[in-house]
Specification:
single chain; mainly alpha; 188 residues; elongated
Length: 188
């Protein structure tokens, strides 16, 4: 099993693990501090599930990400915004409803929605840029042939049409591009 497949499998298994840990935490808190009320225990357990999943996601994928200063700041800012959004929205729902059992579904929706939004945003932030990909390929000493338009690796293909972007090109243009693909101008 490759590392990427293992990371994907762990990311999928992280969902039930976070839910089970939230349920166990809720049961422990309810047994230890029964006077809190069921709704508060459920809200805390749901919040724990979301935070546990986000932290687990970061732990699984942090080794794959090329951590630039910009990525670190953006990841920290999105995490802070997510935590603040959960706290503010959860408090607003709790304070705006008369009956506590009415706000539990809203808490679940807010926390789950915020977590999913954070996962989507950090996936975009953590994505490899074309410049980083070209530098990575160049540093690996790759002799692969790259598409002139999108830098997709065309090794093993028998035609001059990129399966990634659909760009067609002539043999002359392709050869010219391959001659200059590792120049500093290409990485800029």
């Amino acid at each position: 099993m490759t590392r990427i497949v293992l990371r994907l499998a762990l990311t999928i298994l992280l969902i039930p693990a976070a839910i089970i840990s939230g349920v166990l935490l809720g049961m422990f808190v309810d047994l230890s501090y029964g006077r809190l009320g069921e709704e508060w225990v459920v809200a805390g357990a749901v919040t724990w599930c979301c935070v546990a999943y986000a932290v687990g996601y970061w732990l699984i994928w942090r080794g794959v990400v090329a951590w630039t200063a910009r990525r670190k700041v953006r990841t920290a800012v999105t995490a802070a915004i997510g935590v603040c959004a959960i706290l503010v929205l959860d408090a607003a729902v709790a304070l705006s409803t008369v009956y506590m059992h009415q706000w539990v579904p809203w808490i679940m929706l807010i926390n789950g929605g915020t977590t999913v939004t954070w996962l989507i945003v950090v996936s975009v932030i953590w994505a490899e840029t074309p410049r980083e990909r070209a530098a990575r390929i160049a540093s690996a000493g790759s002799t692969s042939t790259l598409c002139p338009a999108c830098r997709y690796d065309l090794a093993g293909l028998s035609n001059l049409r990129c399966p990634e972007c659909g760009n067609e090109f002539t043999l002359g243009r392709f050869q010219d591009e391959q001659r200059r693909r590792l120049t500093p101008a290409d990485l800029g």
